[in-house]
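Deliverable D2.4 — example input (structure tokens):
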């Protein structure tokens, strides 16, 4: 793949020539094909879906369903196992709701870790209060991974599920999900995976991984905001009640409470969805698959190594996850708070993220409440990394303190 050609697909680069963006774990830029698909919907073919019999509505039905098919091809599952949500968070809340209502009972235990995103923890915290379901934490390795030995030792007869990220949004690292699923299934446990930081960056095969659920977001993979994806094994989806109730998810309901739900996946997609978002996501998925997820992964890995090799030689910062094999890179600058360090980089035209990264229990592991995060995507370049490292090397108490204010 030629990154210089790829960058011509993204109008934001030509419109912002000096904008260097390393906050891709938060959201990603959109290629022209996605923008044009959305623009066409609003200018030429606006309609609702699954409700009208007129031509434009039928055409939008087809585009909407084509996105579902493309996503199923991307992660290797059946199209009916793809449920559209509004984000990863909603998908995890649907899983948590179903754990409480349908799949688990009081006294059952869910395993997770302290370095997960808030959306992988808070929906399940609610289960403790409402259903008496317990949360237990597995100690992670230095690189954020999970030891299979520690996993085995964390399991008892009441352990019924594990909810973890494939790649965390902080320490990164590709966790051995296939092996984790094997251990979990040997104990009749369910496995729910947050794939928000893995699906956009590498080939994913949910059949090979054998996870029961996986969730991810369109906006982190060149798609529009407001579209999430929940994959679930069909036999489990059949046992689950929808989190949201409303229009177009039932065949019939009556005042006596009789309710006949539509088939899967439509029963989980109540109300008017983000139609233009889903259609735009279809263009994004096709775009990524044309480049090739293996090509994207290889390029990003080379770029990440180039960055890490330079960062670890700087004397004014500490890289907090240099043993991690993929995903974001976290660092702290000696004597400078993360917010000031990020603001200093912003003054050089460089976008990174600072703070707790929606992982508020991470500080219990790394003993820092705030860090600076660098996250790459396949449109970043070595030249951008050189400028980033040069700017980071200039961070000091004198140069950066008070930058935010």
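Example output (designed residues):
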């Amino acid at each position: 793949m030629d990154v210089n050609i790829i960058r011509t697909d993204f109008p934001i680069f030509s419109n912002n020539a000096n904008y260097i963006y390393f906050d891709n774990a938060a959201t990603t830029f959109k290629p022209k094909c996605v923008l044009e698909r959305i623009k066409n919907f609003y200018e030429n073919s606006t309609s609702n879906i699954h409700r009208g019999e007129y031509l434009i509505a039928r055409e939008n039905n087809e585009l909407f369903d084509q996105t579902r098919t493309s996503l199923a091809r991307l992660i290797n599952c059946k199209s009916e196992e793809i449920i559209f949500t509004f984000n990863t968070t909603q998908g995890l809340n649907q899983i948590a709701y179903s754990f409480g209502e349908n799949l688990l009972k009081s006294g059952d235990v869910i395993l997770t870790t302290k370095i997960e995103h808030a959306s992988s923890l808070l929906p399940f915290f609610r289960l403790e209060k409402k259903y008496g379901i317990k949360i237990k934490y597995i100690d992670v390795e230095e690189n954020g991974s999970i030891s299979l030995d520690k996993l085995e030792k964390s399991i008892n007869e009441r352990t019924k599920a594990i909810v973890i990220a494939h790649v965390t949004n902080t320490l990164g690292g590709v966790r051995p999900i296939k092996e984790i699923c094997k251990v979990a299934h040997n104990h009749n446990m369910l496995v729910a995976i947050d794939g928000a930081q893995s699906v956009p960056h590498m080939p994913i095969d949910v059949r090979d991984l054998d996870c029961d659920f996986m969730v991810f977001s369109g906006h982190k993979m060149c798609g529009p905001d407001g579209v999430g994806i929940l994959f679930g094994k069909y036999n489990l989806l059949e046992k689950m009640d929808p989190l949201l109730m409303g229009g177009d998810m039932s065949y019939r309901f009556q005042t006596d409470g009789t309710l006949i739900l539509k088939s899967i996946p439509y029963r989980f997609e109540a109300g008017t969805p983000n139609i233009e978002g889903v259609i735009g996501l279809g263009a994004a998925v096709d775009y990524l698959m044309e480049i090739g997820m293996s090509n994207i992964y290889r390029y990003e890995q080379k770029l990440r190594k180039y960055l890490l090799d330079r960062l670890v030689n700087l004397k004014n910062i500490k890289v907090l996850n240099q043993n991690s094999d993929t995903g974001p890179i976290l660092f702290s600058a000696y004597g400078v708070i993360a917010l000031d360090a990020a603001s200093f980089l912003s003054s050089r035209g460089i976008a990174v993220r600072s703070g707790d990264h929606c992982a508020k229990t991470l500080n219990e592991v790394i003993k820092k409440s705030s860090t600076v995060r660098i996250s790459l995507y396949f449109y970043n370049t070595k030249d951008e990394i050189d400028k980033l490292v040069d700017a980071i090397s200039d961070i000091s108490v004198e140069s950066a303190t008070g930058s935010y204010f």
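The CA atoms of residues 191 and 211 lie 6 Å apart.
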